[in-house]
Write a structure and sequence with these properties.
The protein has 18 residues and is mainly β. It is 0% helix and 39% strand.
Amino acid sequence: MKIDGECLIELIGSCRNK
């Protein structure tokens, strides 16, 4: 699980790239 930018859900891996 990578943390790119702002990750709301680390478990699912859903990060919104702004």
